[in-house]
Amino acid sequence: MKRVLVLLNARAGTLLDAGGSRVVAEIEAALKPRSEAVDIRLLQPQQLHGTIAQAALGPHDAVVVGGGDGSLSAAAAAFAASDKVLGVLPFGTMNLLARDLGIPRDLHEAIAALATARPRRIDLATINGRPFHTLSGLGFFSQMARAREEVRDHPLGRFAGVMLAWALALRRTGPFTADIVVEGRRQQVRALAVLVTSNRFAADWLRPRLDEGLLELHLVEDEGALTKLKASAALLTGAWRDELGVRSVTARDITITSRRRHTSASTDGERIRERIPLRYRSLPGALTVLSVAHDDALSVK
Questions:
Q1: By the 8 A CB rule, do 176 and 191 touch?
Q2: pTM for the full model?
Q3: Phi-psi map region of 168: left, alpha, beta (phi>0 left; psi -120 to 50 alpha)
Q4: Rounded to 5 degrees, what angle do the CA atoms 47, 52, 57 make?
Q5: Is the same domain home to 59 and 137?
Q6: pLDDT of 88-126, one tens digit each?
Q7: What's 53's domain CATH number?
Q8: What's the rounded Cα separation, in Å, for the pair 232 and 220?
């Protein structure tokens, strides 16, 4: 990496706890010996997405984003199919992409890991033409994103906040009817939750590979209160592979339609009002990222 731009959410709890000036000094110490120039900016949350979009047109070879999955989704969309390299510092709640790339949750370990990370090409997916890096969900997943925002920074800690969000989402989730078209095959369902992921997840919400060129659809149909309880718990913990109430299928394109004109979808943790039909597509090899996960199949040649 010759010229590196580092964009940090100045209001992120991870950064505030560690001290902004100390984090900046630590990043400089880690990246400067391996780069010609390092530009580090502390930004207010409302500035972050706009600055990411501007960085797509800037002179830097690599852009490191310190934020949650939503900020990284904005970066993935901005840098898709470009020659920019995206680096990740996990400042969010779930940090799914960071985990898949082998970036440690601990901030100091993450900074050290970035200094030796390698560029790798990974897949993205799109919803109605907009790229995202990990997942997009309807029903229970959209309600879960809403509830997480409401209980953010819970005084009893992260685990208590997640459990409260799950209870709120479970109470608010109701069935909806949708037509799901998977590579030309149509099925009408009455669902509680629909999740579309870029590539396949294993246990504990980890993707063994990020370059399969696939989408995976996970569907929870409305089959009563017990199914709703068990399936939502399995989806929350990542144990859905063993849950009979969750059906999964792989594809390269998926379309979801209903009688509604709009719906709320949680895409990479951001709850966004989307126009129906929802069209999901796989974008193989669309993004270059800095990764410490040891998978030679993902390495940029």
A1: yes
A2: 0.89
A3: alpha
A4: 130
A5: no
A6: 999 987 899 999 999 999 999 999 999 899 999 999 999
A7: 3.40.50.10330
A8: 9
